[in-house]
Amino acid sequence: MTKKKLVTPRWGWALTGSGHFFTECLEIIRSLDHVDLFVSKAAAEVVRMYKHDLNLPETVRIFKDTTASAAPVGGFYYNVYHTLVVAPATSNTVAKCVYGISDNLATNVFAQAGKCRVPTIVFACDTAPELETRAPKDIVMVYPRRIDLENTERLKSFEATQVVESLTILQEAVARRHAETTPQP
C-alpha cells in the first residue's frame, strides 16, 4: 500500500451535533477534495442517530474529539488549511464561539482558525424565529430562542467569518472559496 502525499492547503470542516441539513452538508463535503473533517462528540452521536454512512472520498481525513486539548487543531498553525467550514453549527456551538469558549473539537478549530486568520464559513442552524428541521424520524418545527438569534447576529461581526443562513448560501460560499483557492492553469 502506497502512502498518499498530504495535499495542502486543505479544507477544514467541523461537524457539530445538529441534524439541520446534516445530509446536505455531507454531500458538499463529498464534492470537495482534500478535506479534514473535525467530528465533535455530539456530531458523532448525530451520525449514529441519523444512521448516516459517511462514504467520504479517499482524500478526506477524519479527526474525532478524543483528546482533552483538541490536539488536531495544530495544523492551523502550519498553514495546512485555507478555509474552515463549521456546518451545520448548533446554537450551542455558535454561543461558545461568540463567547470564546473552546471546550470541544468544533469550538477549538473555530478559535484556532480565527487566531491564524483562516477564513471561516459558519452555517448557523438558528437563524429565524421559526424553522423546519429534520429530526431522526421526520421534519419538525423549532422555535429558536431570542438568545440563539442574537448570538448568530453577534457572530456575523467576527473577523474573517462569514455566517450563512441557508443551504443555498452555504453552497455559494463554499463554491466561491473553492474558486478563490483553486490554482488556475
Tell me roughly what share of residues is in helical segments.
25-40%
Q: What are the secondary-structure elements, in order, as H or E?
A: EHEHEEHHEEEHEH
What's the story with the biggest beta sheet? 6 strands, parallel
Query: Cα distance, first to last residue?
Result: 31 Å
Gyration radius, in Å: 16 Å
How would the global form be characterised? globular
Report the strand count: 8
What does this structure look like?
By secondary structure, this protein is of the alpha/beta class. The mean pLDDT is 88. The chain has a six-stranded parallel beta sheet with strand order 3-2-1-4-5-8, with helices on both faces. A two-stranded antiparallel ribbon has the order 6-7. The chain contains six helices and eight strands; from the N terminus they run βαβαββααβββαβα.
Helix/strand layout:
Layout (H helix, E strand, L loop, with lengths): L9 E6 L6 H10 L3 E5 L1 H9 L11 E4 L16 E9 L1 H8 L6 H11 L4 E5 L6 E4 L4 E4 L3 H10 L5 E4 L2 H15 L4
Parallel strand pairs: 1-2, 1-4, 2-3, 4-5, 5-8
Antiparallel strand pairs: 6-7
